[in-house]
Design brief:
There is one protein chain. This protein is mainly alpha-helical. It is 64% helix and 1% strand. It is built from 37 helices and 2 strands. A two-stranded antiparallel ribbon has the order 1-2. The longest helix has 21 residues. The radius of gyration is 46 Å and the shape is extended.
């Protein structure tokens, strides 16, 4: 290699100015060339160690290159410098799904717009929707006019179970969510999230319209960017899965199943959409072909390094929200139970109890496993223990406990469990169940107190759909059947005064006749007379002996025609052989088919193929054979036919031959 010239060596030794390096850094960042930007940032730091702008550019370039670990390494290397990189550090933790560590960084920090936005995303990933919405409310004071912020707010409200508040929240931000407005807004994410709101509000037809709008907008935008058809289908997979879900809710399972199967077989979607499609497909199929459903779920789940734990594949672990993870794991446990793989279900549930410590669904699954094992008492203990420790999250657990106990005829446990759920004590289904359970326990006083409490609640309720009259009517009927005539009379009287019900008035008259005859006669006058009763003499009717017993009933003469009709036997349809068509029966059967073959007219005995028995020495010729040989001019066929038609009868053989025939 020839030595460098002095001019070239001097040029190589001449350092590049910091201004030129920053120009190159800016050029790479604008072009999206982030790996080159990292190299130039390192060159700047080599010339100017500790330069804040270079450090920030290097960290951001690593983040943009999807290399959060290298960004964290660069942040740790700059910890001694007086540079605040806490936001970038929290963002790297967020990208690595280390959400608690990311939140700890923001403790005590100033709530800037960037911090609040990242904080809301972390809360959403942690399924802490109340905190997430609080962060979005704080962001409103910054007056950020961002469509992404509005879209995320809708998603948080839907995930928090507050879909009914979406319209008011968006109206306050001057966002119109009608289908026509969404068509004009040309926002794919806004149309999609608005459709999810309608699904939660059970407005499935409108949701389908907005999903179609979202799909059309997304397809047009992707076509402008020169996406291929399969790439467009991949990008719009969430919409396709949601459309299939709407069809499933609308009672079109076959159409929904076709969409799910198509997505799974063609893998035309991101991992999250395929996971949703798989879970929904399993819910549609139910217990049918549990082995195939388990194989489909096995593609999404892998063994964890921890003992007795499973985890989703890496692509799903970071992207799938907790609510969908719970649905996926629940489907797997239930399938294992239906496949009688109890040990595997136990192992999975024990792992879920550690993975989802703040959720109730692993506890419910644990109880389901015990019930499957016919260990009902153990399931009741698990649910009771959890309800005592977490009274604020015990509603679903207590409902499950009541159902399990009622099925096992543990009526007292079932009644006590339902009584602990205060916010449903007034609901018709709860009251009816509690009354039935109390009756099974022969506790009519307890059943009556349940009805009285429900009546008192509905008297003070300010709702449009008030059910006070229903409860009063049922309570009056119950008390009348259990000998509480005065209380029943009082309830009927209140019903008559408040609602003017004819049914209640009739009940009041019947009940008052037992307690206060004067009151019964007073209210009886208010009953409307029934048509056709004016000509009936009540006094003479009372003097009659009444209806006779069935044994003493008067015989009624039955006309002869009716007797003949009764005597006629019902003709049964003839039973035909398999694959027999009565319209085309074919040829009639042989009338002699039951006779032995030798007795049928068509019977022909078998001919004796041996012909005439030859006697004499070997090689001798009989007269008949000699005559046949000398006959000429006839063809072989004619000779054969003549011979067969006029075959000579065989001569009688010796005793030995006859004995042989008899033995045959």
């Amino acid at each position: 290699m020839p030595p460098k010239s002095k001019a070239a060596a001097a040029a190589a030794a001449e350092p590049v100015s910091v201004e030129d390096l920053f120009s190159a850094l800016h050029r790479h960042i604008e072009a999206g060339q982030f790996p080159q930007a990292v190299k130039v940032a390192d060159q700047v730091l080599a010339v100017a160690p500790g330069d804040e702008d270079a450090v920030r550019c290097k960290v951001v370039a690593h983040i943009k290159s999807e290399k959060a670990d290298k960004a964290l390494a660069a942040i740790r290397a700059a910890e001694r410098l007086p540079i605040d990189l806490s936001y970038y550090k929290a963002y790297c933790y967020y990208r690595q799904n280390q959400l608690q560590e990311a939140l700890e960084i923001f403790n005590g920090q100033e709530e800037t717009a960037a911090v609040l936005q990242l904080e809301s995303q972390i809360y959403y990933r942690l399924a802490r929707m109340t905190d997430c919405l609080n962060s979005y409310e704080k962001l409103q004071k910054f007056k950020i006019d961002s469509m992404d912020l509005k879209v995320n707010t809708i998603a948080a409200l839907v995930a928090a179970g507050r879909a009914s508040e979406v319209q008011a929240a968006m109206k306050a931000q001057k966002v119109d969510l009608t289908t026509r407005a969404l068509r004009d807004a040309r926002s794919f994410e806004l149309a999609y999230n608005s459709a999810c709101t309608l699904i939660e509000n059970k407005k499935y037809s409108e949701a389908k319209e907005q999903l179609d709008v979202a799909k059309r907008i997304g397809k047009e935008q992707l076509m402008v960017e020169d996406y291929a058809e399969d790439e467009i289908e991949y990008e719009l997979a969430p919409v396709s899965a949601q459309l299939a879900y709407v069809q499933q809710l609308q009672g079109q399972p076959q159409e929904a199943m076709e969409t799910y199967v198509n997505m799974i077989n063609k893998k035309s979607g991101d991992p999250s959409s395929l996971a949703v499609a798989t879970t929904n497909l399993i819910s549609l199929k139910g217990t049918k072909d549990a082995a195939d459903s388990l194989r489909k779920l096995d593609r999404l789940v892998e063994k964890s390094t921890a003992t007795n734990q499973l985890q989703l594949t890496e692509s799903l672990e970071f992207k799938l929200p907790p609510r969908k993870k719970e649905a996926l794991y629940s489907a797997r446990v239930l399938l294992l139970l239906h496949a009688n793989k109890i040990d595997q279900a136990h192992e999975l549930v024990s792992g879920l109890l550690g993975m989802f410590q703040d959720s109730i669904f692993p506890v419910l699954l644990q109880a389901a496993v015990h019930v499957r094992e016919k260990k009902v008492q153990k399931a009741e203990e698990v649910l009771s223990r959890y309800a005592e420790k977490h009274p604020d999250k015990s509603k679903e657990v207590l409902l499950a406990l009541a159902q399990i106990a009622a099925n096992a005829n543990h009526f007292q446990i079932a009644a006590d469990s339902l009584s602990k759920i205060s916010d449903i004590q007034h609901m018709p289904a709860t009251v009816a169940t509690l009354v039935a359970l109390k009756e099974r326990l022969s506790d009519s006083n307890g059943a009556a107190s349940v009805l009285d409490s429900a009546i008192e609640w509905w008297k003070n309720a300010m709702t449009e759909d008030n059910k006070l009259d229903v409860f009063m009517r049922e309570a009056a009927s119950f008390k009348l059947n259990h000998g509480r005539d005065e209380e029943a009379c009082q309830l009927y009287e209140e019903l008559v005064k408040s609602y003017g019900s004819t049914e209640a008035l009739a009940g009041l008259v019947a009940t008052s006749a037992r307690t206060d005859l004067e009151k019964a006669e007073l209210y009886e006058k208010k009953l409307k007379p029934l048509p056709g009763l004016k000509g009936i003499n009540v006094e003479s009717l009372e003097k009659t002996s009444g209806a006779r017993h069935a044994d003493q009933a008067v015989k009624v003469d039955v006309p002869e025609e009716v007797k003949k009709q009764k005597a006629k036997k019902r003709k049964r349809k003839p039973k035909y052989p398999k694959n027999f068509d009565p319209a085309n029966p074919g040829p009639p059967p042989d009338p002699e088919r039951w006779l032995p073959k030798r007795e049928r007219s068509s019977y022909r005995p078998k001919r004796n193929k041996r012909g005439t028995q030859v006697r004499g020495a070997q090689g001798s010729v009989s007269k008949h054979d000699a005559a046949a040989t000398n006959a000429g001019g006839a063809s072989s066929k004619a000779s054969q036919s003549t011979t067969s038609a006029k075959a000579p009868e065989p001569t009688k053989g010796s005793n030995k031959s006859r004995n042989k025939k008899s033995r045959r």
